[in-house]
Design a protein that fits this description.
- The complex is a heterodimer.
- By secondary structure, chain A is mainly β.
- Helix content of chain A is 0%, strand content 54%.
- In chain A, the strands form two sheets. In chain A, strands 2, 4, 5, 9, 10 and 11 form a six-stranded mixed beta sheet that branches. A five-stranded antiparallel beta sheet of chain A has the order 1-3-8-7-6, with no helix packed on it.
- Chain B is mostly beta strands.
- Chain B is globular and about 40 Å long.
- The N and C termini of chain B lie far apart (37 Å).
- In chain B, 37% of the residues are buried.
- The model of chain B has no long low-confidence stretch (mean pLDDT 93).
- The chains are: A mainly beta, B mainly beta.
- Chains A and B meet through β5 and β10 of A and β5, β9 and β10 of B.
């Protein structure tokens, strides 16, 4: 089955700096890669996703890149703000709204 | 629109007891998932329903876990008997249709087995 690895496990940045989280996956059949943000006591919330026919996608301060050949994808957050502090999970699946395999999470802390 | 509703929010039980969790998905969503999230880990799929049929339950420990989705709407997840290692957050999610749209998660039920 699919295996998703995520790095780093913790990341501390200063407000205004950029943050990058990287994931690799094992199943070449996967073609849907969402990123979720999970705040304390809440369920994961989708922040951005990308499909295998696209190499990059951007939404305001958040961008995701995908390299299908190397089987890795990354989340980029620019101009970080304290409210970006949370745990971020990458995931992979064969199609959207099907079984998601999650990474182990990255705890992002944005300091003033 | 209302989100995915789960209850209870918290539950503490002794090992070998039974427990049940309830989920009400977003109205009209055909696909419903139950995920288990152990502290410090990503969610792991336990079972996926499409309407009231099971699509994937390959990671559900069937000797102690069971789930049903009567009438293709609400769902319950049951553990009997519970073990210490079942301590986790149980997340319910729903999506409009398999292969279409994103999965929306509820707030989860935090289970502690003592």
């Amino acid at each position: 089955g699919e295996n998703v690895e995520q790095h780093p496990s913790t990341l501390s940045v200063q407000e205004g700096d950029s943050a990058v989280i990287k994931c690799t996956y094992s199943d070449s059949a996967s073609n849907y890669f969402p990123w979720y943000k999970q705040e304390l006591g809440k369920g994961p919330q989708l922040i951005i996703d990308i499909r295998s026919n696209v190499g990059e996608k951007k939404d305001q301060r958040i961008a995701v890149t995908l390299n299908k050949t190397a089987k890795h994808f990354s989340l980029h957050i620019t101009e970080t703000q304290p409210e970006d502090s949370a745990v971020y999970f990458c995931a992979a699946s064969i199609e959207s709204a099907s079984k998601l395999t999650f990474g182990t999470g990255t705890r992002l802390q944005v300091t003033l | 629109e209302a989100g995915v509703a789960q209850s209870p929010r918290y539950k503490i039980i002794e090992k070998r007891q039974s427990v049940a969790f309830w989920c009400n998905p977003i109205s009209g969503h055909a696909t419903l998932y139950w995920y288990q999230q152990i502290l410090g880990q990503g969610p792991k799929l336990l079972i996926q329903f499409q309407n009231n049929g099971v699509v994937d339950d390959s990671q559900l420990p069937k000797d102690r876990f069971s789930a049903e989705r009567l009438k293709g709407v609400d769902s319950t997840l049951k553990i009997q008997p519970a073990k210490l290692e079942d301590s986790a957050v149980y997340l319910c999610a729903s999506s409009p249709q398999q292969g279409l749209g994103e999965a929306f998660f509820g707030q989860g039920t935090r289970l502690t087995v003592v």
